[in-house]
């Protein structure tokens, strides 16, 4: 009887446990250990590129540090003793680093969403603003967009595409905002009609390398990936001014880091600058022919643009620090982003080196690397700092836009990108991100991978290949992704 | 035995925990409870399309018009019917055609009722040989290009070889990812100056082989082949670059009013009198399609008269920017 009992037990075990083991793969979660995989980086001190850290060329380190400091500045409407005025009249947050902070400054959504605390922290008035329901303390930092304008009855008008950012908050009711009275957009109507989408901040580590890739390099990579037997065939977004390949933002709609910073300063924080020179009304306010009311213009009292080149240098006796102080904020932000070092992947965490190495091979074999190109060869020689020049870019992106299907479509068109086209998200630094996909809808890597498959998506076949892997192989791939 | 059962329960508990972790994917989202009277936008629908495919009429078949119905993939443009294996379905349709002429015609995967333990997929794709980025003039060359440019993650299992599928000439190429233990079998033939590719992917070679054998039930135009293939019957002959030189007797250039920077690949059918009968945009913004349509219907061509009798011709034209690169000068990408 004993052998029979043992066999029964084994049979029960197999029946009960094997299905469990087959689905045992899981997202290892945010990788612990060194921030960005870099020794010396802290939550408030991201590392610059190696040549910048070596202050080559002389003064570049001062410019990086100056940009980093300004990235953390808290902006006010009109009463900042440090001169950081110009916030609003509409904005999403009052500090770049508030949203770009995971795992360090320059990154993406932190674990605790500062947008959920703006009333508690006195950034906006609770009598004139409320926290939209899609902003939660443990959710991602978000901007909201309405894909379409509303008609007079409050219904989305599909003949009138919008897609512009609808800032979450207004300065109305703040003590430094005078008589400016603006309502928040009607987020509840937008939600009840499905006419709202979200975006989370893109991390900007290594962004200077991405900026310094010539179009010819990207086009050569594009051609090399053709005929891939995976159903993938992307294209590029282009800058409307010069027709070259644009590459920053969720839809690769921005050409350069300077444009990126100038737009963000204006759109996310409401601060006019030398690239976007006016305070920004909501998309609908210009459509209605009104723009912003006079009571909400020039709230800073400085005139326009609120952020300008500083003609009188300030700072210490250090000549380079003085030089850096001449920059406008927008330029300083761009310099900071340009000189930020890319994350360094771990070779051992999570799961150990064998698992990570295996996962890397699987990542390439099943087709992920067709779009998430591990390495682009290479940047152009740099006139800024040696680390930006003639080097590989291990961003895990082809910088193309791809159709991602009905599951991810946000129905927002930007440049040449349609409602379901997105730039291949660079994966460097993925291991220490909390939220995934353009809207931060998930904090689970498996969920993010599964979302790649839907009708109309170029990535469905690759997701099928992922599904065909064994649980162990899937775990290796997840470990690899979290090692980045 | 008490100890053994205790172990069973511990392991069972661990198993359940692992299952729970694998399925949990925290989601963010909005509150859709208020304003119930408002008209909602449909979810899961691409309303704002960028450059997309379109045609001058909705009757003439186009490559992307194929569908799975009653467990059969049918494509009128290619004259193709492909009965799927039982319990295999198209769960997700493919993306629109690309500006380099690449089509995902169908993506076939096991249904929930599939009894097998292995997974796999069949990708049915087409590459328009007028617009391909690869230096290939026919399906055979396209597959050889794949083999010659196979990246280091893969090993060749069987080099490109001509085989017969459903009585037609195909080229078959097999390769494997040793680390993923995934096998690819690519079977390609040519119809109307397109390489039609059936890509079978699975870890189970027996399953893959059974799927390939199932392709013998496929119906194709009579002269589909690895190096040349028309649509058969009354479909137009396809000729690369026919809309050039002295073949064009009257030409009106389209005027694009917006600077877009995208490629606009177009296939046209020229009737026996030399007029444009049908226009198919693989990828174009609506205003580009309108401008090209307005212009092309004014073009006149020298009729194509191969044997003393004029016939319809299908050819390709690239608008927008210049084509990225010239494909080899040859008449091979043609059925004549």
Description:
The complex is a heterodimer of chains A (484) and B (336). Chain A folds into 2 domains: 217 residues, no CATH class; 221 residues, no CATH class. Helices cover 30% and strands 6% of the residues of chain A. Chain A has 17 helices and 9 strands. In chain A, the strands form 4 sheets. Chain A has a 3-stranded antiparallel beta sheet, with no helix packed on it. In chain A, helix 8 crosses helix 11. Chain B has 336 residues and is α+β, with helices and mostly antiparallel strands. Chain B has 2 domains: 166 residues, Protein Transport Mog1p, Chain A (3-Layer(aba) Sandwich); 83 residues, TonB (TolA/TonB C-terminal domain, 2-Layer Sandwich). Helix content of chain B is 16%, strand content 31%. The longest helix of chain B has 22 residues. Chain B is globular, with a radius of gyration of 24 Å. At the A-B interface, helix 1, strand 4, helix 5, helix 7 and helix 12 of A face helix 1, strand 6, strand 7, helix 2 and strand 10 of B.
Outline the secondary-structure elements.
The complex is a heterodimer of chains A (484) and B (336).
Chain A: H1 2-22, H2 50-53, H3 60-71, E1 90-91, H4 96-99, E2 143-145, E3 148-150, E4 156-161, E5 165-166, E6 169-170, H5 187-192, E7 197-199, H6 207-211, H7 215-224, H8 257-269, H9 283-287, H10 319-326, H11 329-338, H12 353-365, H13 368-371, E8 401-403, H14 405-408, E9 421-423, H15 445-450, H16 460-468, H17 471-483
Antiparallel strand pairs in A: 1-6, 2-5, 2-7, 3-4, 8-9
Helix pairs in contact in A: 3-10, 3-11, 8-11, 12-17
Chain B: H1 2-23, E1 52-55, E2 67-69, E3 72-75, E4 80-83, E5 88-89, E6 102-110, E7 120-128, H2 139-148, E8 155-165, E9 168-177, E10 182-191, E11 194-202, H3 205-214, E12 237-238, E13 248-250, E14 264-270, E15 276-284, H4 286-296, E16 300-301, E17 313-319
Parallel strand pairs in B: 12-17
Antiparallel strand pairs in B: 1-15, 2-3, 3-4, 5-6, 6-7, 7-11, 8-9, 9-10, 10-11, 13-16, 14-15, 14-17
